[in-house]
Write a structure and sequence with these properties.
The complex is a heterodimer of chains A (249) and B (812). Chain A has 7 helices and 10 strands. Chain A is an alpha/beta fold and 249 residues long. In chain A, the strands form 2 sheets. Chain A has a 6-stranded mixed beta sheet, with helices on both faces. Chain B has 24 helices and 20 strands. Classes of the chains: A alpha/beta (249), B alpha+beta (812).
């Protein structure tokens, strides 16, 4: 396979009149979103009537206490979880209408996810971890994939560890690898769930700088964080409390 | 990381993951591969052996120009052979003289020695024997031994053997060489001896240059038994009309080695057992894949989070399973070929034929490939699809099995939670056993089935033994002596009583008879035993009709084996018997148990019918005379009875009586038991393979349990558990599983024993075997199970005891 074809409908392209296919004006648009969970202790509402719009190139911090619903919100945007009520539009995709299979494909091409505990595949080398999303989503020609992965590892300054297994790297290096993997398919949106929560302050600062670089490249970045200092350096902060977005003062 | 980077570099990352997962969990890979390969190589061995043995046996058998029928006459010469050869319905005919002698072994023991005189060793046309080694043909005073005789009785070329003819004369013959007679049951199955001499030697030994056995090959359809029977019956009638005395006509299965059908039946039985082991390996694969998928939930979630679709995830894990299959195939193919070679040689040696051709048929390779690749995929399909369906959210928020608890709402969980009063480690083992109930079940089932099969094989042995006992118990006597001609009953009885050790004796009449079927053709040969009507030497269990009564004339009591062979005949029916060339109508008045193979009477192996002494003696003109003497001895042990038998034989010989064999019942039982053990041995071998699959399953389960409880083990170590106590917990858990499987297997063994006994009985004896519950088998399986449990738990226990606290607490 010499050339990898990307289905255009899977990539986010803004329409000429400033709106996306479903009429949403924001790149990420959540409408009246509610999420309920059934637990042994009864129903639990993680999100209540959430409405949120995020534009391309924005760097958004989602902050809130533990259990406030911020991870649920991020999971809705990445398609990892589905709303009980409400609509999610991301670019041209009405995420709430896609099935699991379509969502996986869409997510692989449009959203890069950085997890708090890195979640690298333990039996694959760092380089292979980066190649995996390209492989799954059939992105880039095979020869190009390795070059691209190595370039990304250079960006996050761990290229010399490309052929090591994740267990051989420090936490900070693993998180850099996870960020590089999130960028493997060059997604327009990057979502990071407490990416620095498990790192020392010096490493956390380096990772944060990487995110700031991504913004300069036009990416839209959504980051869940506990760190109010970091939040202050971000364009906009969304505060969640008891499943509701606290209005800006 | 020892996997070669160059090879891996060419693969997509997802396939690299598959290979690394296999490599990282080598023990698990080995277990699954071995489990799958057991069923596959067992199939390869049995299917290849079936084809190879069939091919060799039938090719070799056809090459000897087997007789379509054999007639035993009093005497005839070359003129008759010429006449018979000219008959249009006869393709070929040959005459031989067979006569019974005895051979003295170096130990002094006398064994039966059947000698055949062949006129022209270079022009054998029917039932050819082949030159094996040494001189050919045998010269004067020389004998060729059947090759199985030489090896079984340890007689070599060049040895001189002492033989004794029925007129008590002894001759020394030199063993000139060895011959191969494919029509003979080899000595290791029936310890008789066979040899071949020239007519010159026969004449030197007092014989005449005449024949007594006429072997014919019919013209026309040589595979059609009815045609052969018609031609042979017609020939027999013609010979009798011409004044020849025909004692017996035998029509074997056409163009089929006498043991071919038994061989096919053994192969079929073993194939069933190998199919079970193959099916059971599926349980292990299911267990392993379910566990792998459970451990990989988070990784599945990550793969989905980075764009992996369900189909791709399924492909990844099916790829893993496929590699298991390929590896299993690589293991199974050579073992299958080598095993088939060994098995074929074993069977060829057992049946006494040569393997000239050995080739594994392509279809066997194809089937093995399918089996190795399909079984793992089928077994793993459900856990893979089920796990691949997991949502990313469910996968990455999964807390793993470390937090799993015994379910409060199920009975087992409640029962196990209630167990109190045991030492903590034992209690922990017991509770651990029931934590993964599905896995427990899938481990228990193969072990229980393996156990049930193992016990059932012992059941078959017990049933066969019971059958032998039942057959032998028909005779309430210790030894018997058969005379070559009738002697006065009172005389032989009195003389027998004068031999030390003989405490009672009774004289019987005997006769060979042939059944003439309703359509006029010749049916099976039978032996008539005629004890005095008030005898207590026979304890026939009458299953239908009645036993003989005083005043009975042409009535007989038959064994159920004969009625099984003659489906049209029942108790109360008339039956035509031909005795000494004369046909008479008899009536079947009773049916007793199995009578053939009891080794009693002149026609060992033929069914026996009981008739009234007075009537049989009257029609034979031998009233007051006996051809068989039954005796009871004061010794019950085999050696003691053999000693008395020899003394009896010597005594009769000193009186100048012409005697045949003296056989003790113990020896008869021993002969029958030897043949039984061949079958039991093969079945036990297959049961052992099942046990191996079960043991692999248990090892797999224990390893998975340990892997999943890594964190728990770390916590136990953190709070003071020693290596020994960790090992103890694991080994006890293994033993608890095995004891449960033993209990289930014991219960299952009842229907298994019944099924296997019936299958063996119907296949080999054409009747159901008596059911016997094998307590011995249950006990042996218990012992073996505990050994299996300990062996299967040692490695996982060792691994568990080596887990460090730091490693365990870092484990996700």
């Amino acid at each position: 396979m010499s050339q990898i074809i990307i289905e255009e409908s899977d990539r986010i392209i803004r329409g000429g009149n400033g709106t996306y296919r479903h009429g949403n004006r924001h790149l990420i648009e959540l409408r009246d979103l509610t999420k309920n969970y059934k637990t042994p202790a009864g129903d639990f509402t993680a999100l209540k009537d959430v409405n949120l719009g995020i534009d391309q190139g924005e760097f958004i911090a989602v902050i809130g206490k533990s259990g406030s619903g911020k991870s649920t919100l991020v999971n809705m945007i990445t398609g990892i979880d589905r709303p009980t009520i409400g609509e999610i539009y991301i670019g041209d995709a009405a995420l709430h209408t896609l099935n699991e299979e379509r969502t996986a494909q869409w997510r692989g091409r449009n959203v890069g996810i950085v997890f708090q505990f890195f979640q690298l595949m333990p039996t694959l080398t760092i380089l292979e971890n980066l190649l995996l999303p390209m492989d799954f989503c059939n992105m880039y020609a095979p020869r190009e994939r390795v070059e691209r992965a190595m370039r990304l590892l250079e960006v996050v300054e761990i290229a010399e560890h490309a052929h090591k297994l994740p267990a051989a790297l420090s936490g900070g290096q693993q998180q850099r690898a996870a960020i590089a993997r999130a960028l493997a398919n060059d997604p327009p949106i990057v979502v990071a769930d407490e990416p620095t929560g498990n790192l020392d302050s010096r490493t956390a600062e380096a990772v944060f700088k990487l995110f700031e670089d991504l913004i300069t490249q036009g990416k839209t970045l959504l980051m869940v964080t506990h760190d109010r200092d970091q939040a202050q350096r971000i364009h906009r902060t969304v505060i969640i409390s008891d499943g509701e977005i606290v209005p800006d003062d | 990381m020892n996997v070669n980077k160059h090879y891996l570099a060419a693969l997509k990352p997802r396939w690299r993951k598959v290979l690394r997962d296999l490599w990282e969990h080598k023990a698990r890979t080995v277990l699954v591969v071995l489990a799958v390969s057991v069923g596959v190589f067992a199939f390869g061995i049995l299917a290849t052996s079936r084809v190879v043995l069939d091919h060799n046996l039938s090719t070799e058998y056809l090459a000897i120009h087997p007789a379509s029928a054999s007639l035993v006459l009093r005497s005839f010469d070359d003129d008759l052979i010429d006449v018979v050869r000219r008959l249009p319905e006869i393709e070929e005919a040959e005459g031989r003289r067979t006569f019974r002698t005895r051979l003295q072994r170096s130990s002094g023991e006398w064994i039966e020695f059947n000698l055949t005189a062949i006129a022209d060793y270079e022009d054998m046309r029917v039932n050819q024997i082949w030159h094996q080694s040494g001189s050919w043909p045998p010269g004067r005073h020389e004998v060729l031994l059947e090759r199985s005789v030489a090896s079984y009785f340890n007689i070599h070329e060049g040895d001189e053997i002492l033989i004794e003819t029925s007129d008590d004369k002894q001759y020394t013959l030199k063993v000139a060489g060895l011959a191969h007679d494919l029509t003979q049951v080899p000595s290791h199955l029936i310890p008789n001896a066979t040899g071949f001499v020239s007519f010159a030697t026969l004449e030197w030994m007092g014989g005449t240059r005449t024949y007594n056995q006429l072997d014919i090959i019919v013209a026309g359809d040589q595979r059609n038994k009815a045609h052969i029977q018609a031609v042979a019956s017609d020939l027999k009638k013609r010979l009798e009309n011409d004044g020849y005395i025909v004692f017996h006509l035998d029509v074997p299965e056409p163009l089929q080695h006498p043991m071919a059908s038994m061989l096919a039946a053994v192969n079929y039985l073993l194939m069933v057992l190998s199919a079970i082991s193959y099916a059971l390996s599926g349980f292990l694969i299911y267990n392993t894949m379910a566990s792998i998928m459970a451990q990989q939930r988070k990784q599945i979630g990550i793969m989905k989070a980075v764009g992996g679709r369900q189909r791709q995830i399924i492909e990844v894990y099916l790829g893993l399973v496929f590699v298991f299959g390929v590896l299993a195939l690589l293991v199974a193919l050579p073992i299958g070929v080598y095993g088939a070679k060994l098995f074929c040689h074993y069977i060829a040696n057992l049946i006494n034929f040569d393997l000239h051709y050995f080739q594994v048929p392509r279809w066997v390779f194809a089937m093995q490939t399918l089996m190795a690749l399909i079984a793992p995929v089928l077994a793993a399909l459900y856990p893979i699809i089920h796990s691949a369906r997991i949502t990313v959210h469910a996968a990455i928020t999964d807390h793993g099995i470390a937090l799993e608890r015994l379910r409060q709402d199920d009975l087992t969980g409640r029962l196990v939670e209630r167990v109190r009063g045991l030492p903590r480690p034992v209690l922990l083992s017991l509770r651990n056993t029931f934590r993964r109930q599905m896995r427990l079940m899938l481990t228990l089932v193969p072990l229980a089935i393996a156990g049930a099969t193992f016990i059932a094989v012992f059941g078959v042995r017990a049933s066969l033994q019971a059958k032998i006992d039942e057959t032998v118990s028909l005779y309430n006597l210790h030894l018997q002596i058969i005379f070559d001609r009738p002697y006065r009953s009172t005389y032989v009885s009195r003389e027998a009583m004068s031999v030390p050790g003989v405490i009672e004796s009774e004289a019987w009449a005997t006769s060979a008879a042939t059944i003439v079927l309703q359509d006029g053709t010749i049916g099976p040969a039978i032996t008539l035993l005629a004890p005095p009507v008030d005898t207590d030497y026979i304890r026939a269990a009458i299953k239908e009709g009645r036993w003989l009564e005083p005043g009975d004339k042409n009535v007989l009591v038959v064994g159920e084996d004969l009625l099984n062979e003659l489906p049209g005949y029942h108790v109360g029916d008339d039956i035509v018997l031909e005795i000494g060339g004369q046909r008479r109508v008899w009536q079947i008045v009773g049916k007793t148990g199995r009578t053939s193979s009891a080794g009693t009477g002149p026609g060992t192996g033929t069914p026996i019918s009981f008739v009234n002494y007075d009537y049989l003696a009257r029609i034979q003109g031998t009233q007051g005379y006996a051809t068989l003497l039954a005796a009871r001895a004061d010794r019950l042990d085999t050696a003691g009875q053999e000693q008395i038998a020899r003394a009896l034989e010597e005594h009769f010989k000193s009186l100048g009586l012409v005697t045949g064999r003296v056989r003790t019942i113990n020896l008869v039982v021993k002969d029958m038991t030897v043949r039984m053990y061949v079958l039991i041995g093969l079945m036990l071998l297959m049961a052992a393979l099942l046990a191996v699959v079960g043991a692999l399953g248990l090892t797999g389960t224990m390893s998975l349990n340990i892997l999943e409880r890594t964190r728990e083990i770390g916590i136990m170590r953190a709070i003071g558990a020693t290596n020994r106590s960790i090992r103890q917990i694991v080994i006890i858990e293994g033993n608890v599983i095995v004891l449960l499987s033993w209990a289930v297997g014991t219960v299952l063994s009842i229907p298994f024993t019944k099924f296997l006994s019936d299958a063996v009985g119907l296949t080999f004896l054409n009747e159901y075997l008596p059911f016997a519950f094998p307590v011995e088998g249950v006990a042996i399986w218990l012992g073996l199970s505990l050994v299996i449990a300990t062996l299967a738990s040692i490695l996982p226990a060792q691994r568990a005891s080596q887990i460090s606290v730091r490693e365990a607490l870092a484990y996700e």
